[in-house]
Design a protein that fits this description.
CATH architecture: Up-down Bundle
Radius of gyration: 21 Å
CATH class: Mainly Alpha
Distance between the termini: 26 Å
Number of domains: 1
Number of helices: 16
Strand content: under 5%
Number of strands: 0
Helix content: over 70%
Length: 411
């Protein structure tokens, strides 16, 4: 905790970036709760909900790789600003949806939000090593997981409260305002190095005399072919996401139908997710000296947690196991991100993180669509058990490879 507070106090640009993410993240959750509520009210279809969730991830198939390339070739701060301000307009588009024939607008607006989120995500992740000192990278990645947890806990709770008290339109307006505030916060960030790493020249180099000749930026595909780390994480992102897509759909079904908790049950389970990420962020930095071991063990814990959720006797036991699974997910995410930032050339960070995002999001989208179609034929608990078992097997298989590789160290 002390180390996290030190980073927030010392790394002012990163503090603003994190605050921007907190605001836009909470707005996103308000939007999600309001959108799903609106779609269920207008259509009454569970498949509609699954389709809406899938629409938000499919754009990563196209924009993910483009976002990664742009993040490595142009000003990353500019990408954040364009993405935030563009999403303001799409967030307000949901205000036009009031009847069944207008549902297409909700899908179109969701698609627009997802496109610019896919553009935003790799640039934001890749910019972190530019904003913080190398010794603070793992702590910053831990704070990222705590922010996810805080966003889930506050966003889902506020989403339910705002939607119930003021209606879905109020939630959509708040989401638009959150993107606007996030954009202005990103605008205020003073970048130590505002250009991509391959383009910049340090003041220390200039003080030494003539501009040194730098080696050309490495090719992404050359780095991919040579890096067992990237290959293993890419495989993990694909296999894990098959089970992860199933789990994403089942959380609402667990709370509403399996444990008969209604909307409150869904809120409790999402709250458990938030608490898990929040706790993981407070503890992940402690594993900075054993990142690979932490990533593997945490991934196994995550999968086992979901296995136990699927077999839990009641809502509260399921919530405890769901929080445990999410603690594992948070520690794993922070460890993997730190491994990449330490071992992969900075010039390709945008494309590497875009590859992971694209692989996982597209796979999750397809998995959610298939889950929505199969849930009428397979019980939710059975589906959840086998999806979680796949996550455990993935963690063990890729974990063996991760522990055996030799990692380079790069600046």
């Amino acid at each position: 905790m002390n180390e996290a507070m030190t980073v927030l106090r010392v790394e002012r640009p990163y503090r603003r970036l994190l605050t921007a993410s907190l605001l836009s993240g909470i707005g996103n959750w308000l939007n999600n709760v309001a959108l799903l509520s609106l779609l269920l009210h207008l259509t009454g279809s569970g498949l509609t909900v699954a389709s809406a969730l899938a629409v938000r991830t499919l754009p990563y198939l196209v924009m993910g790789p483009i976002g990664g390339i742009l993040a490595d070739r142009i000003n990353r701060k500019a990408i954040l600003l364009i993405s935030d301000f563009a999403r303001v307009a799409f967030a307000l588009s949901f205000l036009l949806v009031h009847s069944l024939p207008q549902v297409w607008i909700a899908y179109a607006a969701s698609l627009g939000l997802a496109l610019f989120s896919a553009l935003y995500s790799p640039a934001r992740t890749a910019i972190i090593p530019q904003l913080v000192h190398p010794r603070h990278v793992m702590t910053a990645n831990s704070l990222e997981q705590s922010t996810i947890g805080l966003v889930m806990a506050l966003g889902s709770a506020l989403g339910g409260l705002v939607t119930a008290a003021f209606g879905t339109d109020a939630a959509f307006i708040v989401n638009a305002a959150s993107f606007l505030m996030s954009g202005f916060l990103c605008w205020s960030i003073r970048m130590p190095n505002s250009r991509a790493p391959s383009q910049r020249e340090s003041s220390e180099d200039r003080s030494k005399g003539p501009t040194p000749v730098h080696p050309p930026a490495p090719s992404f595909w050359a780095v991919f072919r040579q890096s067992r780390l990237i290959q293993i994480i890419s495989l993990q992102a694909f296999l894990w996401s098959i089970g992860g897509g199933v789990i994403n759909v089942l959380i609402s079904l667990y709370g509403f139908h399996v444990f008969h908790g209604g909307n409150l049950g869904v809120g409790i389970l999402y709250g458990a997710l938030g608490v898990g990420f929040l706790i993981s962020g407070l503890m992940a930095h402690r594993f900075a000296k054993c990142l690979r071991q932490a990533a593997v063990i945490a991934a196994v814990i995550e999968g086992l947690g979901h296995v136990f959720v699927s077999q839990s006797p009641n809502l509260w036991v399921a919530s405890l196991f769901l929080a445990l699974a999410t603690i594992g997910a948070g520690v794993e995410n922070a460890s993997i991100a730190s491994l990449v930032m330490q071992s992969v050339p900075k010039q390709v960070h945008g494309r590497v993180f875009a590859l992971f995002d694209t692989t996982s999001n597209v796979t999750i989208a397809l998995s959610m669509m298939v889950t929505g179609l199969l849930l009428d034929h397979i019980p939710a608990r059975t589906f959840g058990f086998w999806a979680a078992a796949l996550m455990v097997c993935t963690a063990l298989a890729t974990g063996i490879g991760l522990l055996r590789i030799k990692l380079p160290t790069t600046g």
